[in-house]
Amino acid sequence: MAKGRVSREDWTMAALHALARGGVKAVAVDVLGRELQVSRGSFYWHFENREALLVAALETWELRATTDVIAAVRAEDDPWTRARALFAAALGSEEIAGLEPALAAHADHPAVAEVVTRVTRARLDFLAEVFGALGLGPQEARHRALAGYAAYLGWLELRRIAPAVAPEVLPRDPGATAALEHLVTMVLGPSPAEHAGGDH
């Protein structure tokens, strides 16, 4: 495969898959080059060094898993639909399984720490915004955001460490829909329709 046919994105995605498999140490230029079937020359065509690849990969993750998701969910006009869409997007199929738990496990690395901190802040702020739109006050919205994000991280960690024990956390499991619905209901509380039903 000629170096011109392997793009910068090919390298960054290969790096993200490596991060999911084995953390920061797994982002090895020679290993990724063999996977992509190119020489080191292809790597240096796109990146100055390994650290630049790592940063680019992390920024790609930030864009796809946070910036793009927030923009898509924010486009929903109805606050309740927006809230459910966010959890459906976050807890549905992962583009790269195990990536987020792997990044959390390597948050002591400076490049990882910087992006994970930025992503966590953006996600918590958006969650608080979502809960605020549902009528919660600022403090309650913040607390609900913390609880919701903790549930999200725990859900992904269960996928990584105990899929045989908790298969419902896997998107393709027959019990996944019901389990996810239960979690979302716990985090969001009763829907407007359920509220209205309780008034009668």
Mean of pLDDT? 91
CATH homologous superfamily?
Answer: Tetracycline Repressor, domain 2
CATH arch. level architecture? Orthogonal Bundle
The CATH topology label is: Tetracycline Repressor, domain 2
Comma- or semicolon-separated keywords:
72% helix; single chain; Tetracycline Repressor, domain 2; mainly alpha
Which SSEs are present, and which pair or pack?
Blueprint: H1 8-22, H2 29-36, H3 40-46, H4 50-74, H5 79-91, H6 99-105, H7 110-133, H8 138-161, H9 176-188, H10 192-198
Please provide a brief summary of the model.
The protein has 10 helices and no strands.
Describe the protein.
The protein has 200 residues and is mostly helical. The protein has a single domain (58-198), classed as Tetracycline Repressor, domain 2 (Orthogonal Bundle), CATH 1.10.357.10. Helix content is 72%, strand content 0%. Helix 4 runs antiparallel to helix 5 (79-91), helix 5 packs antiparallel against helix 7 (110-133) and helix 7 (110-133) packs across helix 8. The longest helix has 25 residues, at 50-74. It is elongated.
